[in-house]
Every structure is written in C-alpha cells, then in structure tokens.
Amino acid sequence: MKIRILSTSDVHGYLLPTDFKNSTQETGFGYLKAASVIDNVRNNADNDEIVIYIENGDFIQGSPLTDFIYRTHQDKHLNALFSNLANSLHPDAAVLGNHEFNYGIDYIADSWKTRDFPILAANISGDDVHKISDGPYTIIDRKGVKIAILGLTTQFVPNWEDRDNLGDLQFTSALAVAKHYVQLLKKEADVVIVAYHGGFNSDLETGELIENANGENEGYQILQEVPEIDALVTGHQHREIAAKVNYIPTTQPGYRGKDVGEITLNLNQYNHVDSSSARLITSGDFPIDERLKNMIETTQQSVESWLDQPVATIQGDCLIHNPMNARLFGNGFLDLINRIQMDYTGVDITATTLFNDDIPGFNNSVSVRDVLNSYIFPNTLAIEEVSGSDLKAALERCASFFALEDNKVTVAKEFREPKIQYFNYDYYSGIDYTFDLTKPVGQRVVELQYQDKAVSSTQKLKICLNQYRSVGAGDYDMYSRQKIINLFEDDMPKIIIDYLHSHQDIYVTQPNNLKIIK
Length: 518
What we know:
Helices cover 27% and strands 28% of the residues.
C-alpha cells in the first residue's frame, strides 16, 4: 500500500495565474493550476494508492482578490467562494495560517462556513476556537489503513495580530502539542501526519540555527524531537522544500500555488511505513482547472473592474525604479506613504516599508490596482511613545539590513535567508538620520535629529508604525504593545485610497532626510 500526501500552502488568494499587475497577465502559479496537479495525481493513482490532500493555511488573505472579497463580504455568494473552491478539491483536512487572522475570527468563520472538510487547530485554545476549528486532529480510515492528521499553526500569531482579531484564543507551542498528541495518535492510527503552518528555524542538513529560536518556526525541532511522526507538511516561510530529516519526509510548497508538495509513504503488510520520499510538483506545468475557473469567473471580472477604478492624479515621480536605492535614500513613493500616515494619525514621525522588490509604486494616474499592488498587506496603524534610545535602536536594526561586499551595498544575509524578509527594513520620515555602513552593525547610526535638534536618549517621541512592527515583529524588540498609546481600525490600503480621493493636488519629490556613508 502507498500513501501520497499532497499539500498546498500560502496560496494567499492567488487563484488564477495572475498577480493582478494588469488584467491580462498570465503567470506560472495559481490555485487553479495546483488544483489540476491534485486532480491529476488522484486520477492516475493505482488501486493500492491512497491520496491525501491537505490545505495548509494562509488561503483567504493576501491578494487584491481577497481584499475585494473582504470589503464586499456582505455578499453571501462571495463569502462562500473560498469554501466552495476548496470543497471542489475535497481536502482531507486544513489548518489555519497566521494571515487567516488578519480579518478576525468571525471572518474566518464566515469564509469557511460551508466547508465539507475539517479545519484542525491542536495548539489553539479558548472558547472561540469552536468558531474556526473542528478539533485538534482527524483520523481517516481508507482501504484498511487508519491515517491521523494533526493540525498546528505557528504559535507566533499573537505577536503580530491585533488582539481584537483573536477573541479569547490562546496559541501554544506547536512542538509541545505535537509531542502530546502524537503519542496518543500512534495508538489509534497506523500513520501519523503533522500539518503545520510554520517552517524551520534551522538548516535541515546541519541543524545550525538560521533565524532566531523564538518559537515562530518549530519544524526542525518537531522532526528531531517527535520521531514517531511519519510525515510533516509545512508552510508559512514561502520556501520550496522537499527533504527527509531524521528519516521523516517533509515538504513546503512555496506560495501562491506555484508548487504542490507530495510526500509518498510506502507501507508494509502491517501498515507501517517501510520507505518514504518527498518532492514538489510544479503547478506551472499544468493547465488551469476549468471547472474551478467557471466558479470564479464572474468574481474575477468584478475584481478587475474594481481594480481599474481611478483614484487620483499625482505630480512628480512616485515609481520604484531601484528598490535598493529607495531603501538607501528614500524616494517619492515611500515619502508619500509616510505623509499619508502622518495625516491620518496626527504624529510627525512615521515609518513604512518597501515590502519586496516587486512593489511598483505609483504612476501619475493612480488606480485601486496601483494601491493594492504597492501596499500589499492590510496593516493597521499604531502610535507608540518611545525614548530616543528606542528610536536609535530601531534605526540600528534598519541599518543592519545593509552589507558591504567589495565596496558595493547589498542586502545582509539575515534578511535574505532562509526566506526573503525585505519587509523588516523601514524608511522613516519626520527625522534626519545618517547610516555609516563602514561601521560595525549596532554602531551605524551616526546622526539622528528631530526638528533640527539632536535626539537625546531620554527624549520622549511619538511614532506611527504599522501594527506588525508596533508589537516588535521583525526583531524590533524596542517596540512593544506596552508602548502603544493609540490604535486605529482602518487598514492601510483603505487609508491610502481615502487620502488620494480627498486630496486633489498631490506632489511628490525625492526626500533627503536619510544619508548613507559607504
């Protein structure tokens, strides 16, 4: 007997093969291509094969389409779209990703209301968990084999998410919960699969730490400390992984449906795993699932029309021509976002980020599409009161983003591996500051002024940050919930669109408040 475990993860609402930069774009990814992979494996399975499919989280947030559905979710037809799509592929189980919680637990419940598969959440507890989960695990009895699937979500969700979005939910260590449940499940099932919306903080070959051991990504520890499991499905980091660690096969299928993870378990006559393997199947090699395309075609057309709505006209250069230069010196787009944040919150020191190198910025004529392609997360805003030394420490963290190699400025390895984290560098407005990149990390902020005066270590300052950064995410420990003095409900795409709608004469210029010595 053979078990083939298929998984998607971090689809982020990319259904058709488009990233929404224009209405006719075709790419090599998308859930509807991944769907064809899954159908192909099932349709070609032998009689002695069992095919399991797991949806591994971050499904309902992350694209202009998901943003549109959220803003119009009173429409019951749209509200059921995610459930109906997934139902068509008949997952055996699903887990929740951290971004599922961006819109709150009631939205999660509405989005998955009509599902016909279990959502598993073994390490999430609280009275509200029944709204979003069907239990910690499921056991499938198929062809005489009992297969247990345990569902886990990174315990770091409360470190990023607005508390109002979480109700009374509590998140505990995926490793600790796996240790507890796997012992029980081995007594009830022949095969135990762990589906974990989390990744790896260590190199899979050497075990060397490659990011902070803060509990966000416990996959490597699960493989080492829970050897009784037969397969580990992962996600969250958007990495492409197919490997065996401690004799356990594991996958992580990238994001946006680019790949489908496949773990194969070969069973002996006693239904015990005799051998195993792991691989990724590239979705780009498969056509769109036409059945699912028909389900979303009307919605996709509505999204494209909505995205093309004009918002404003801007004078000046607001495009990202060179992402590295934009981070090194600021640019018109980043300066405009910071100005919008200042206008909305009423504080005059603020920070924003260039989330990745694909952010285009704005043309002179700005549409809804431009906003959502350039500010890709539904971040809300917070105001923190911090000391001058806190601000300097945050800037030192920003300065560590850069490395000098052969006198050329590059992105430091920490922000590139094991996954790209360009969103953990911030550009500030409202202060004048200088980075000396020839100095050691931690000693690079050589000038810091506010209102033409040097900032003292004890000076109190109010700063506008996105909610993700305000709780210290990205190793910004100088920021914390305890220092937040005001929170705002509107998300940044809405704030930007409202600002652009209400301001007729918008001019952007190249800022000059950040200087670099290299």
